[in-house]
Amino acid sequence: YITCDSPGKPAVFLIDRKNYYHEVPSLWFPVYGDPTFSRFYEETLIDCELINDIESNGRASLRLLVFDFVVNKEMERSYGLEKVLKQIIPSLKHNLRWDNFYIINIGLFGREILKWKPPNENSIDLKLSFDFKRHNKNNKPRFCLYKWMDVHRYFDNMYVTDEEWEQFWKHDFQQFEGRIVEVVYNPSIHPPWRFKRFRDDQPRANNHTVIEKIEQSIFDGITEEQAHIFSILNYYKR
C-alpha cells in the first residue's frame, strides 16, 4: 500500500495476510513515463508477493513480485460504491479480478482494509482425486475434493457435466490426479463446487480453518443489490 507522509515523500507498506503493516522506507514506485523520477504513486494498492528465490549457488534472494496495480486513481468514499460498481468497473478495458477489489478506511483507528468480492467469486483451493468405484452410466467418476488437516481429508465433490468429462477430463485424467484445483461455489448445482483453474503453485489444499472462513464469507456474502448504497450515503452525510 502506497500513501504519502508529506508532499513529495511516499510511504510504502507491505501488508501481510493478518493485516499487519510493515513499512519499507527504501522502496518507492515512480510514476511511469516521468524521466525525472520525482513523482511517485500515491493512495495506491499493489497486488504483490514477497518471496525467496533460490539461486543456482543455493543462496536465497529476497524478491518482491508485483502482479497488478489495483488502485492508482482517486479513491471513492464508502458511499461511492455504486459509482465503482456501475460506472468505473464497466469502463475498465481489462477484466477486473474481484479478489483485488478493496475498500480502504483511514480513520481514527488507523488503516483498515476490507476485501470484498461477489459471493459467487469466492474460491477455495482443494486437492482433486478421482473415485472410479462410484461412477455414473458414462463411467464418469466422482471428482473428490480434499482439504488440509495435517493430511488431506475428504471435503466434498466437484460438479462436472458428462460433456465436460468427455471433452476435457476423460482422456488425460491421470495427469489431473492429485493436483490442486481452485473451485468456486454455485448454489444452483449439486455438488455446489465448480472447477475454475489448476493451482500448481500450491503444494497442498487450503487448511480447514481457512476453508471455514471462506465458507462463512460465501454463506454470509453481500451482493451488490444487498449493499443498501443509498442508506450508506444518507447515514454518512448526517
Question: Can you describe this structure?
Answer:
With 238 residues, the chain is an alpha+beta fold. 18% of the residues lie in helices and 39% in strands. A five-stranded mixed barrel has the order 8-9-10-12-11. A three-stranded antiparallel β-sheet has the order 1-2-3, with no helix packed on it. A two-stranded antiparallel ribbon has the order 4-5. A hairpin with a 5-residue loop joins strand 8 (123-135) and strand 9 (141-149). The longest helix is centred in the C-terminal third of the chain and has 12 residues, at 208-219. It is globular.
Describe this structure in a few short sentences.
With 238 residues, this protein is an alpha+beta fold. It contains 5 helices and 12 strands.
Q: Cα-atom Rg, whole angstroms?
A: 22 Å
**Helix count?**
5
Classify the oligomer: single chain
Largest sheet: 5 strands, mixed, barrel
| Percentage of residues assigned to helices | 10-25%
Strand content: 35-45%
List the helices and strands and how they pair.
Blueprint: E1 2-6, E2 9-15, E3 21-23, E4 45-54, E5 60-71, H1 81-91, E6 102-107, E7 110-115, E8 123-135, E9 141-149, E10 151-159, H2 162-169, H3 173-176, E11 180-185, E12 193-198, H4 208-219, H5 229-236
Parallel strand pairs: 10-12
Antiparallel strand pairs: 1-2, 2-3, 4-5, 6-7, 8-9, 8-11, 9-10, 11-12
Subcellular location: Nucleus
Catalytic activity: a 5'-end diphospho-ribonucleoside in mRNA + GTP + H(+) = a 5'-end (5'-triphosphoguanosine)-ribonucleoside in mRNA + diphosphate
GO molecular function, one term: GTP binding
